[in-house]
UniProtKB/TrEMBL annotation, chain A:
Belongs to the binding-protein-dependent transport system permease family. FecCD subfamily. Pfam families: FecCD. The keyword Membrane applies. GO terms for molecular function: transmembrane transporter activity. Keywords: Cell membrane, Membrane, Transmembrane, Transmembrane helix, Transport. The keyword Transmembrane helix applies. One of its GO terms (biological process) is siderophore-iron import into cell. This is ABC transporter permease. It comes from Salinispora arenicola. It is a multi-pass membrane protein. Its main location: membrane. The chain crosses the membrane at residues 20-38, 73-94, 114-144, 156-175, 202-226, 246-268, 315-334. One of its GO terms (cellular component) is plasma membrane.
UniProtKB/TrEMBL annotation, chain B:
Keywords: Cell membrane, Membrane, Transmembrane, Transmembrane helix, Transport. The keyword Transport applies. It is a multi-pass membrane protein. PANTHER family: FE(3+) DICITRATE TRANSPORT SYSTEM PERMEASE PROTEIN FECC-RELATED, FERRIC ENTEROBACTIN TRANSPORT SYSTEM PERMEASE PROTEIN. It comes from Salinispora arenicola. Pfam families: FecCD. It comes from the Bacteria. The chain crosses the membrane at residues 47-69, 98-117, 129-148, 154-171, 183-203, 223-245, 266-292, 312-330, 342-359. Belongs to the binding-protein-dependent transport system permease family. FecCD subfamily. It is found in: Cell membrane. This is Iron ABC transporter permease.
Amino acid sequence: MIVVRTPGGVSLRLRPRSLAVGVTCVLLTLAVGVLALGSGDYPMSAADVLRTLTGGGTAAEEFVVHELRLPRLATAIAVGAALALAGAVFQTLVRNPLGSPDLLGFTQGAATGALVVIVVGGTSAMLSGAAAVSGFATGLLVYVIAWRRGVHGYRLVLAGIGVAAILTGVNGWLLTRAPLMDAARAVLWLTGSLDGRGWTHALPVLVALTVLGPAVLAGAGPALRLMEMGDDAASALGVPVQRLRLALLGAAVLLVSLASAAAGPVNFVALTAPHLARRLTRAPGPNLLPSALLGALLLVVADQVAQRAIPGQQLPVGVVTGLLGGGYLIWLLAAERRAGRL
Amino acid sequence: MLSSPAPAFRTTSEFTLSVTHPPPSAVRAVPAHPIPRGRPATRATGLAAAVVLLAAIVVLSIAVGAKALPLADVWPGLLDPAADEYTVVHQMRLPRTLLGLLAGTALGVAGAIMQALTRNPLADPGLLGINAGASAAVVTGTAVAGVAGLHGQVWFALIGAAAVTAAGYVVGGGRGATPARLALAGAAINATLYSYVSAVMLLDTASLERLRFWTVGSLATAELTIVGTVAPFIAAGLLLALAVARPLNALALGDDTARALGARPALIRGAVIAAVTLLCGAATAACGPIIFVGLLIPHLVRALTGPDLRWLLPYCAVLAPVLLLGADVLGRVLSRPGELQVGMVTSVLGGPLFLWLVLRGRVGRP
């Protein structure tokens, strides 16, 4: 543990291992990012990419990097970080390693909004808006349903599962109401894809991260750590548990909504990134920042895999995260069970 | 509960009876029904009433639809397959009704024995991912092996259901699993498998066109051949379930007590898993994944009959199809001339009940 004390009375505690994990994630993300910017139908070397980024490229290179590939990369980084940060907050609040938006009805809620727009017919901006709003509304609904003299982790999980099950039925029905081409578009959106994403998709998520990220990290990080000990202990130590939980849930839901609006509800990033971060840092507590950085890395890597896995076919990134994350999840369940913690 | 007589006490004290010891006959027998819920006669009457209700729903299911049929015409329509005006009955509504009967029975009974085995009020074939397992296997068969038609589908669905039942039991079930954990394990399995299902649909537009209707859960595509294909599997599953009703009652008292009463826990668990697989696999293969029927019905029935499986299972077998066919008829009535798929109706009806069960706070405590 390194403690940095400033003259102003602010102290910052750093764990060397967490710091190393975070820095490694950033470096790897940058490295994979440069590769991603240089790969595709118009291949460029890493040197060319860096030269273009610093403003020394040809017109063609400028166009390919700045107009086509950089927005997609930025979206991947922003969406990955937002989902992972929200996931870490969710898991800490619910006090269950599986308490993530993927399993709590949130994803299905966002999907319902998107499907309604697709069936009724609307622009992609409307689709994103509807997804964000309905996702947020679903999160709120689950919270209200689970409320009983405060919200406790397991009630939230069960209410989420119930709402998710209802919405799955509704979504399936909506899918049958659409013409086939629209249905394919809807399934694609539901899976989560970064195809053709531009700055309009990336910016809202980046703004939300810039505003909410520091607030969650600095404002709620220490309190979240206390809340992990249980509501009573946290209350006794001066944490306004219920109010803080509502605020944090709101922030997490907002992050997930915006991320879903940008790339669709990408499967399992919110669930797996915090887990992996915890395993890597071996630090107690929510591990918010390492989770977010790892989430960005995961999504950038998954997107590269998705583009190259089947030659001549671009898989949506959600398929890769879904299968990898799903496999990890099943393994995790079995492991947690053996360890007797779940 | 258990109608076995009280065990005779063959202890040494029997051979040294003195006047101070009560004679063995004075040892009070174990009551046959620790939780009496009405006399058997009452429960039999109730079951008869349930059968009448089911008959009424069956008639409705044949009469109601885009082309309404007067109730008086239902019976002659069934008897006269040649008449043109009754084509709709033979081509569509009779197979659909039979399939609803079979699938409803299968799901209700599967839910009841799962809840009994896991001692978990939230056990349901849909919630635990068994239907999703069958779906994933069917989708694979359709897209990869080009399996078309139900005969191939059934086998895929059974394999998928079996895999998930076993996996779910290992991962989230077993003994000492809390309802919340079992539900979470199911949700995790569901999420994983459905992301796989949508991936397959994306890569293969032809299978999307066929499967998007199947994955909602519907009775609309029923044909008599389909009913014939799944009937043997469901019958086998039902027989197996009824056969384990008594020993499963004993298992509710804990493994040791069950062994003392002559039941064999491992064998019973295996039989229940096999029955659940047959019932859910066949039902899912025929109509797609239908959620909440297996959760809802056992809960409602338990309020009527108490926990004795020997009564619970027959009631579930009769009342679950009432719910499923009722939901199907409702789906046809609500959106004439089109229809709402039955899977959607059951999830919208059943979801709130699930939430209510959770919110009462009686289940899900870790």
